């Protein structure tokens, strides 16, 4: 996998992405390649192909070769491989997006989540130091609005105190502070992007937005009867992943390393997302009952379309996230291109097309 990579020389645009096979990694790789970067990515060994989101970036996708993307087998739990890859690639920019990123799953895989999301960040920073690149390599850390957790202040800014509410958020809290510490201790150019939820047609299937758009598409095509969800009342500040990867890059183009909130500044409930997704399919949802008994029906026919299933509740929930991205707008010149409504339409259209072509998807 890694044989085709070349070490960077002065002024070359060379980036390394951990988590390149994920939603954000795939959009970021595309974005950087368009900007003329040579992009290196860390690929986890898997028993089935896990390059579906990035395969099109190869010059010859059918044989996984050619072009400006180079993959290296590795893992954030393996220090030796991180040192080896970073020493060889000598990236000018590293984007640490690799993570066990599912909040609910982190309650079941708490130790592993800490290994990857917390200690993995430390391993990466140390690997850069061991490679002697701490003064040359800029590092982006995928921090998260989940750090705010329990509502202390609305809207949330770079100065809002943290109150993590899951093993995932606790692990990411360590990642946040170790980045700040290495910046202060060793003068490393390392930034935290405090990104609020961002979605897309490439969003993992078990995050709520994608779960909804996939299910609505299947229901429309007669492939599924009913969508089961957990907490319908939690609110998130949802943006489009394509817009958010640009903010990551902008952070590393600054003179000084700083931390930035990236958000839309609008909160919407899960319930509202469900309503908008069905509305795009021409259906109006009528809610009946409350709590775990609540159900959503087609207003015209009465057909049951949505049901609450407590198995999707979390032991501790994050009720409301709403970000203030003023700093990113002023200092980075960042602004989102897609609205919340456009995001829902983009995801719905993509899943309708996907399910029509491949009902088994
Ligand atoms: P995804 O879950 O889509 O992607 C996660 C990536 O991390 C995948 O490439 C995955 O590989 C990789 N990964 C998982 N475990 C390891 C490991 N042990 N070693 C190396 N790589 C690993 O996440 P997103 O793209 O949505 O998010 C990117 C980052 O941003 C994550 O760190 C996430 O926590 C953070 N974040 C995301 C937000 C969002 O709304 N999307 C908001 C704020 C922060 P594989 O494909 O093999 O599973
Ligand atoms: P989140 O995203 O936990 O915010 O983390 P997710 O889409 O999983 O949940 C958002 C909200 O929806 C509620 N919910 C459900 N969630 C899921 N997954 N499945 C359901 O059936 C369901 N029903 C209701 C949840 O309880 C929650 O309140 C995401 C991840 O990308 C993190 O990695 C990232 O750090 C944060 O966003 C910002």
From TrEMBL:
Q: What are the UniProt keywords, alphabetically?
A: Lyase
Please state the pathway this protein functions in, per its UniProt record: Nucleotide-sugar biosynthesis; GDP-L-fucose biosynthesis via de novo pathway; GDP-L-fucose from GDP-alpha-D-mannose: step 1/2
**Required co-factor?**
NADP(+)
User: Is the keyword Ligase in the record?
Assistant: no
Location of the NAD(P)-binding domain: 16-347
Query: What Enzyme Commission number does this protein have?
Result: 4.2.1.47
Q: Which GO terms describe its biological process?
A: 'de novo' GDP-L-fucose biosynthetic process
- Gene3D superfamilies given in the database record: NAD(P)-binding Rossmann-like Domain (3.40.50.720), UDP-galactose 4-epimerase, domain 1 (3.90.25.10)
GO molecular-function term, one example from the UniProt record:
GDP-mannose 4,6-dehydratase activity
Which NCBIfam families does the record match to this protein?
gmd
Q: Which family is it part of?
A: Belongs to the NAD(P)-dependent epimerase/dehydratase family. GDP-mannose 4,6-dehydratase subfamily.
Q: What is this protein called?
A: GDP-mannose 4,6-dehydratase
Q: Which organism is the protein's source?
A: Pieris brassicae (White butterfly)
